[in-house]
Structures are given as C-alpha cells and as structure tokens.
Amino acid sequence: MSSPTNFDRSMLVEYSAAFMYYIEKHKLMEVMSRILAEIAVADGVTDVRRWMGENVRRIGVEIYTKSLDAFHRGVMGDFYQLPRNFYPRIVLHGKPGSGRRSLAHVLAQRWNLLILDADVLAYHSINSQKQDEHSRLLQEAIEKDCVYKRSQAVGNLIQNRLLKDDALRRGWILINYPNNKCEAEELFEGFTVPPNRFVFLQIDERMARMRILLNSYSPGPQAHITFLDRQMAQFRKSEPALNSYLSQRREVFYVDASPCFEQVKCEIISSLTKTPYVLGKKYGEANAKI
C-alpha cells in the first residue's frame, strides 16, 4: 500500500481551521472534559466505552442547554465564557466616528490579537507588485465600479488572510467589514473560520460627525464633508437589512458608543469576557437538539 508523498498545505490548513471551528461551535472540548471528570468519580464502571456511549449525549445536551438558557436569561459566569482553548475572533462594526479603529487597537493590545482592516488589506492588495486572482478581481471591480464583484473580491482577500498562521494562532479583530447584509452572511456562513464575537457600536449620526470633524490631530479623507456625507449615506442605506440579519445571531451584541472612550472600552471588555458564549443563529440550527 502506497502513501502520498506530498500534499496541498493550504488545503490542510483550511481543513484544520474548519475542524477547530466545529469543535468550538459544538463545545466538544467541554463535553470531553465533563466525560473525563464524571467517569473519574463514577462507581461500578466496568466497561468504559459503554459508559461513554450511554452518557455522551446526556452530557452534551446538558452543556449546550445550559449555555442557551444562560444566553436567554443573561446569566454572567465563568462557565459560559470563551473557552481557554480558543482565541477571540472579533468584528467591530459601526458607522464612521463610532471609534472602531481606536477600540480595535486597545482590545488587540489587551489580548495580543491581530488587527485586520479590510480597507487597508484591499489597498495593499491592488498596489502589490505580485497580484493574485483575488487582487485582479478587485482591481477589475474598482475600474468597472461593480459593487458585487468588489464585495466578493474583498471577502476572498479577508478569507485568505484569516487562514494565515498568525491569524489562526493569535486570534484577530476585523474592522471595515462587513458593510451590508450579503457580506455579513458570507462572513458568518461562508468563511471557514467565522467570528465568535460581533460588536455593533451604536452612536447617533450627529455625534459621529462631530467626532470626525473635530478630530483635527489625525487628518484624513474622512474629515472631508463630502466624503463623510457619502459614507453616512451608505451606512444608512445598508443598516436596516444588515441589522435585521445580525439581530438573529448569537455572536452579536450591541454597545452604546456615545459615552467617553474609557467607558465604551470597559463595557466591551466586560461583554466579551462575561456574556454567555454561544455560536449560531438564535432560531434554527442553534436550537436543534444534539
């Protein structure tokens, strides 16, 4: 019997990442830990494999039911936090002026996470000397002003970046993506390693504009009133459908970004570390019995 001498490393990495997410989503590490803890103190166990087969379903249902129940009741507790075996994968979303970039740097420093800015990634991709297929697709979409192809190309660039070793080993914070409902669906349901936390920063548009225009120490295109009007108009147009989809996801929580920076930062950190950790849709596969 012969064995293969070479393999596609990218396929192996993608498979490993998908397997990691499957274990995380279905809480298999918690299930195995509970099985080992129970069997260690169980009396009269003569056939270990039989005992595991008879009890694994019960243990899995108990763990997942408790997590779902905690989510609905808003229970805070260590048992429902992000498992230590996995790394945070956070999306910071909100309109311009909500503080996404500043908060991303603070949170990344706290947990040693990788910061991924979709706009920066797209910029470096199309200006790189060696362009891949996704970079060429993005360049073509920009030249033809095709929103759908641009969204598809940016999504592919982010997907590939999230499968790099540093992103898989450290965890990450993503900003400036998604920008609409279609991109959010692709992010959660199409990515091999989707986010396990999505922070939606809520802020009044008038306050967001004032923050940007008064932020004179960091001038940029966002400070131009015409550019800002366009950004806000795009956000207002896409927000209803995007919010309708995000409100169905268990990974999403909303934070008021109007108070001072320190207060918003503390609220996000508290929510990330203490809220029940459940993945998937609120109604659908997440409610299915194990």
Automatic annotation (TrEMBL):
SUPFAM superfamilies: P-loop containing nucleoside triphosphate hydrolases. The keyword Transferase applies. Keywords: Kinase, Nucleotide-binding, Transferase. It comes from the Eukaryota. It comes from Drosophila rhopaloa. The keyword Transferase applies. This is Adenylate kinase 8. InterPro entries: Adenylat/UMP-CMP_kin (IPR000850), P-loop_NTPase (IPR027417). Gene3D superfamilies: P-loop containing nucleotide triphosphate hydrolases. The lineage of its organism: Eukaryota, Metazoa, Ecdysozoa, Arthropoda, Hexapoda. PANTHER family: NUCLEOTIDE KINASE.
